[in-house]
Structures are given as C-alpha cells and as structure tokens.
Amino acid sequence: MTTNTSEVEKSLENEKKGTQRGHTLPVSPFPAAYQGTQKTVRAAKSSVDFWKAKVRPREIRGTVTPELYVRLKESGRDTWVNLNTSNRITAAAKARNLWLSAQSKGLVAAVAEFRPKSAPRAARSATVGELLTDAKAISTVRASSFAQYELSLRRLVAGVLRLKHTPAVSGAKSPANLAWRAKVEGASLDILTAAKVEAWRKAYIQSTTDEKARISRRNTASAVIRNARALFTPALVRLLGANLRLPDPLPLAGLTVSNSTRRFKTTVDPRELYASALVDLKGDELTAFLLCITAGLRKGEADLLPWAHVDLGASLVTVAPTSWFLPKTEESQRSTPIPPDVVKHLRAARAEAPAAEFVLTGLDPAKRRDAKTYRCKCWKALAAWLRAKNFASPNPIHELRKLSGSLVNLTAGLEAARRHLGHRNISTTANSYVTGSAALVNLAAPMPTRTALGRY
After folding, report:
1. What is the mean pLDDT of residues 362-381?
2. Is the bond leading into 26 cis (omega within 30 degrees of zero)?
3. Predicted model pTM
C-alpha cells in the first residue's frame, strides 16, 4: 500500500495569533512507519538556533522589508522589533539577546534599550523666537543694543539653516520676510552647535576669492557671533532658566572670535571735504554733517539731539539722557565745543524753526518702528554724498566721527580724542578711531650731537 504523504513547503504566519501553521516534516497516517528514526530535538529558547526560525522580513504597505524582524509578546503586548540586518544568523543572535534582556528587565525596557529611538524623547530646547521674546522682557541693555543682538542671532541661525533670503531684500512686513522670520524663529536653539556655527563661518568667509573681502567677512562673522552670544550671558541665563529650557552646553559657548576692530584709515582731506560740504549740502544734510565732523557725534546722538542741549552762547553741544534717548555709556555723556562757523549755522537753523524740539527735522520719535530706525531723512542723502567723495566704508557717516577724532588726536593728543568721542577706554580710541603713523627712522640722516641727544 502506497503511503500518501504531504509536505507544507513554506511556513505561513498567523498574524492574529503570532503562530506558525503547517509542518516542515512529512505527515503519515501510519506512525509506525517512522519507528526507529531519531526524534528531532527542539532547540532551547536561549539558543541562537531557536531564533533563526523566528526572524523574518515583514511586508509593510505592500513592500517586503530588506531587514529581518522579530515578534515578541509580554502580558498581551505584541511588539515587532527591527533587527537592522538582513543576515539571519546576526538577526537571530540579536533576537536571542533581546529576549534574554526582556526576561530580566521587561519587554518595554528591553526594547527601549535595544532601540533608543523608541525611548521617550527629552524635552526640546527653546526656539529662537521664545528666547528673543523672554530675553527682551527682562534685558536691561539699551534698546538699540538689544536690537543688534536680535539681528545677529537671526542672521546666524539663517546661515546655519542655509536660508538664502535676507530681510533687506524686501519690506519688513512682506510675505517673503515674514516667512523667512518664521523659519528662523521657529528653529530650536539646539542647532547652534559649535560645529555648525564654525561650518557657517568658514563657508561665509570662503565664499569670495577677494582677500580684502575675506578680511571684512572674517571681522563680520566675529561680530555676528559676539553679538548673538550676548543673549547667553550668565546673568541673563539665570533669569531665563526658570521659564526656558536652554541647550547644554549653551549655544556659542567656547567659540573663539577674532578682534573685529578695523583700524581707521582715510585718504580724504578733511579741509577739502569741509569746503565741499559748505558748497554742496543744504539744510539738515549740512547740519548733520557739521555735528558729526566737528562735535564727533554718533548718528543716533545727532538724530535725537534736542535744542535744549545746544548752548549757542557757550558754543557747546551736550550729549545727555532725554525722554527719547539714552547715551551708549556713562562716558558718552559729554559736552563738546563747536567752532564759530558751526554756531552761526545753528543760529540760522534755530531762527527758521524756533518751536522745534530737535535740531534735525524728522519723525515723531514715538512713531519710530524700532530702536534701529532713525527719525531724520537727511541721513540717506548725506551717506550718498559721502560715497561720492570716496568714502568706501559701509557706514560713511560713522567715518565722519572717526575723522573728527583723528583731527583732535593730531592737535591735542589721544586722551583728548577719547573724551571728544566719549569712549570708555582709550584703547578703543587708539585701535579704530584715530589715524596715526609710526615715527620716522632715518639712519641716513646726520647723527645728532651729544647735546641734542641729552634732551631726549
């Protein structure tokens, strides 16, 4: 009698129960036919061989995965775990180790340890926008300084994110700028790692082949990092820590920044420039020019200079706090003498507008959009005129202040120039606000007499 045997050629998974149905050995209605054969020994569950039959690929959304998975159960909890390999032996070893870990730690803890991505995520750090909002509410720095910190942080984040758009391209409230700002301020502070910031700095500097431009960009990058880092000072971090989760280490910590000071150099003859201004400029453009080059005023100091701080009788211009203006530092509060022709010009300007509050005409200071917006329209025209006079600086009006300090340095010395400009430290004046040359070493000249040497 012929024995009819059947063989299940492949093992099918019962997805509902997680079991295998079918057999891999011949099935016969006559067990006696196999008497005397060796009984198959089932591998222990702690053996890798056991798990070789348990690992398999999965079909996910109609596609079979290249990696092998294992299915584990505990207290009714059914979990598939990706073993991250297509090698059956390696997968079996991982499955065995995972099962052993589950026996001692529990399935959830074992899977979390094996697959860290499945563990609960740490709370995210604050976003750029959250930091700026909270810092602005508690910061005690000048509004204009904080505005510069904001601009620098946004610029740095945009550079790290490789966002091409810049707010200067369009209006502040344009759709393009609003979208750009939303992306920047929605970014987590975690992105400001040292590696990413250094990569931005390197790319920014090397994006030009002009060596002079590279020096300028190196200084600019240092200034951007330094200003942005001002939002993470120890005092501010202590106050912010109660409401915001800040990254550890803090953004920009440990980054080195080079000295971004640019020594003032000019090829402009100040007397020729002054004579040209008296001919070419009129009204507020001339007034602003005279205040900056003779009194050494900053743009913001001249923009909000009230008539109450101009003493025409004593020929003095005073920089001091007002309802609308706070000097940059204590040393910035100063009284500076002005020459007779400037006094004459200011008397005429005062006579034309006897009721005016400010020396320069412009918008009501209460209606300024932000601390970096100037009241007066004259600045744009004056800057254009100065560029036509070979002022190559990005901020030609500030160069007038440096030119003024240089003239005081030549006639009265460095300390007088520091007081004239209202600097806190004389090193600031010496490093970037005055011109000067080294002493002449002329070894071909006749040797001075012993009597002359005794004078030195």
Report:
1. 82
2. no
3. 0.58
